[in-house]
Write a structure and sequence with these properties.
Length: 477
């Protein structure tokens, strides 16, 4: 009997990894094995430690990876999978591949930096601490990537094929529609990856990719994310609030620090800043995009115009490339990054990682958190156990580089920037389905979020909804 096994993003929001095995019998014969996504666990140590565990089936026996998008919690374990012996193809859209070619080496670089830091501090019980994978290993895994265009059907084996459809989550993001032949019957499995927002520009302004996931789906088995299963996004335009927050901070002589991953959300955010500055709603203060991949991320974003909303296309036409904007600095080198700290005047600093789990944002926050003049502004989801979660939840201090840093700066969050559908948006999308799936497994959510979404879907749609458990294996009948 074919089965799906949840190797990650079950009971948590990170480490997305779902294995499909087309046949399995008691003699132990394995069929074609494909992983949908291969993400890194982030957040609490209990989960991060699982990055070091082997997959339940040896990596060399996995035949293919189908990658929905380029966020690290979906792609960040690929270099490790390759290191463990995987040698198959990794299928993704060209935009996802372009983003991975920047994101994965950067992740390898961060892994190396972390290991180096622990070795210096002797803070690891592993002596010496090793990186999960290196920058070089991350670069090496890129040769396994194969571009797949939307709606192109890829036949993986006689019984297994898939095609990508739009998820409208980030640049290049997709859902995977998998077709499985079993016992003479065809079964359709839909893996949502992360679901973008069903929206109009008033509800979620600044959105740069297509509006809403593909409608009119059919699925026998639905494997669906539930990140925002228990929270609704505000239905207000974030621009006036953002302008206010910036004006107040500048008024008291402070700077705005924004933890943001360089991919997607930074582009959205800086176009909004540009709009606010050009219209005179906020002062023209220096903006620093501080990330080794800052420029490359903008270039990839500008290259994939097929992904834009009409609103994004207009903004790009009007303002051109952010790299050329006066007052906007893209700090790629460590030297340029450190220089930002010498600046004593109000400025806006965007730096990764978005959940403050590592990267250059750490030194900006270590310097600016103790001063009440400054503002830390969150524009993305903060997983429990991350420093971002600690800061956002009002803690008095946070551990950075092994020391406790007092949090006296103002802390604010704008949830409108989210790239994940909220419950009303998910229901709106699910109601466009042509059939009722036999079963829905909820993944990629904290337990409270998943269970609330299960209850809502059961009540509103009457569907059979279950919450996937870590390592659980479910048969596809
Ligand atoms: Zn994502």
């Amino acid at each position: 009997m074919p089965y799906i096994q949840f190797l990650g993003a079950a009971g948590t929001v990170t480490g997305s990894k779902h294995l499909i095995n087309t046949t399995y019998d008691s003699s132990g014969k394995e069929g074609f094995q494909a992983l949908i996504d291969c993400g890194l666990f982030q957040g609490p140590k209990e989960w991060r430690e699982r990055n070091w565990q082997d997959t339940p089936v040896p990596a060399r026996e996995i035949d293919a990876v189908i990658l929905t998008h380029a966020h690290l919690d979906h792609c960040g374990w690929i270099p490790r999978l390759v290191k463990e012996g995987f040698g198959g193809s990794i299928y993704a859209t060209q935009a996802t591949i372009d983003l991975c070619s920047v994101v994965l080496p950067d992740s390898g670089h961060l892994q190396e930096e972390d290991a180096e830091f622990y070795n210096k501090k002797k803070a690891s019980k592993h002596d010496p601490a090793l990186p999960l994978y290196t920058l070089e290993e991350a670069q090496d895994c890129l040769r396994y990537f194969k571009p797949v265009s939307l709606a192109q059907t890829v036949q993986l084996s006689p019984e297994l094929s898939f095609r990508f459809v739009r998820a409208a989550h980030i640049l290049g993001s997709t859902m995977a529609e998998v077709t499985l032949q079993t016992n003479g019957q065809t079964r359709r499995l839909l893996f949502t990856g992360d679901i973008g927002r069903v929206r109009n520009s008033e509800v979620a302004p600044g959105k740069v990719v297509h509006s809403g996931p593909q409608e009119g789906e059919t699925a026998d088995v639905l494997i669906m994310e539930s990140t925002y299963g228990n929270r609704c996004h505000p239905n207000t335009d974030p621009r006036p609030e953002l302008a206010n927050l910036i004006r107040e901070t500048v008024g008291r002589g402070g700077s705005v620090v924004v933890p943001a991953f360089a991919v997607e959300r930074t582009a959205k955010f800086i176009f909004m800043l540009k709009e606010l500055m050009e219209s005179g709603q906020v002062q023209r203060i220096p903006v620093f995009c501080d990330s080794p991949m800052a420029i490359k991320a903008v270039e990839i974003f500008l290259k994939h115009s097929e992904e834009y909303t009409a609103e994004a296309a207009d903004l790009i036409k009007k303002f051109g490339s952010p790299i050329e904007w006066p007052g906007f600095t893209f700090a790629e080198t460590a030297e340029q990054s450190k220089k930002i700290n010498e600046n004593q005047f109000p400025s806006i600093i965007l730096s990764s990682s978005g959940m403050v789990t590592g990267g250059r944002i750490l030194h900006h926050l270590a310097q600016r958190l103790p001063d009440p003049k400054n503002l830390v502004l969150f524009i993305g989801f903060q997983a429990p156990g991350t420093r971002g979660f600690t800061i956002k939840s009002g803690a008095p201090e946070v551990k950075i580089y092994g020391d406790f840093v007092p949090i006296r700066a103002q802390v604010a969050a704008l949830e409108q920037f989210s790239d994940h559908a909220d419950p009303p948006e998910m229901l709106e999308w699910l109601r466009t389905f042509r059939n009722e799936p036999t079963v829905t497994y909820l993944v990629h959510g904290e337990p409270a979020a998943s269970s609330q979404l299960r209850d809502l879907m059961t009540k509103e749609l009457g569907w059979n909804v279950q919450i996937a458990e870590y390592m659980e294996r479910v048969e596809v009948k």
